[in-house]
Recover the amino acids of this structure.
């Protein structure tokens, strides 16, 4: 019997940007859970039937975190099996683009490069495709909460507070004729914050992740 997938929570957040085409509409974002540590990841691998112990797996993962940035810093992309490829990109300084070939004489790259980013490109091969729409098929999605961010004053300082209202609760209140409020009685978020793209699509498959 196939093992039941653990669901990925999808929250909805209202677009409150006045004048935007999507103003007032609700858009999906992932209910991001607490980040798993390297040790926790090694334990997860062990619990999934690995023949290697947690200490060995943890040691290998630590070595990867040391060697991968070293190679990428040398301009060498690193492909990790069917996971994807880590590679570097350069971010130009503001107004620092080179105007002509003549200006390249004696140029110091540090004068035009603001930062070097490690980017990740998911595998898109037919066998191991884990990009965008393909990876969605590996996920079991469930709706959870309406997310709202409000400003509150704490000790004289304005802070942003995120509230979660279970969608089932909001729907029930709406059906009863009352006005649902995402700032009222809120449910708990099992694990952490939310993240996503309020206001539109994710841009399609194949986009790299900038780190």
């Amino acid at each position: 019997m196939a093992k039941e997938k653990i669901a990925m929570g999808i929250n909805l957040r209202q677009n409150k940007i006045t004048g935007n085409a999507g103003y007032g509409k609700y858009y999906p974002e992932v209910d991001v859970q607490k980040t798993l540590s390297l040790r926790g990841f090694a334990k997860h691998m062990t619990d999934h039937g690995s023949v290697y112990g947690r200490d060995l797996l943890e040691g290998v993962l630590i070595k990867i975190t040391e060697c991968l940035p070293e190679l990428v810093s040398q301009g060498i992309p690193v492909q990790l099996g069917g996971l994807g490829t880590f590679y570097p990109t350069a971010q130009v300084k503001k107004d620092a683009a080179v105007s002509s070939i003549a200006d390249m004489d004696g140029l110091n790259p540090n004068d035009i490069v603001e930062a070097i980013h490690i980017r990740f490109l998911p595998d898109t091969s037919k066998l191991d495709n884990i990009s965008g729409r393909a990876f969605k098929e590996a996920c079991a999605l469930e709706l959870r909460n309406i997310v709202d961010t409000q400003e509150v004053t704490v000790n004289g300082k304005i802070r942003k507070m995120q509230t979660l209202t279970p969608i089932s609760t909001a729907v029930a209140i709406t059906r009863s004729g009352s006005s649902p409020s995402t700032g009222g009685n809120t449910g708990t978020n099992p694990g952490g914050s939310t993240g996503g793209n309020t206001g539109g699509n994710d841009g399609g498959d194949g986009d790299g992740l900038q780190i």
About this structure: The CA atoms of residues 27 and 199 lie 6 Å apart. The first strand starts at residue 8 and ends at 14.
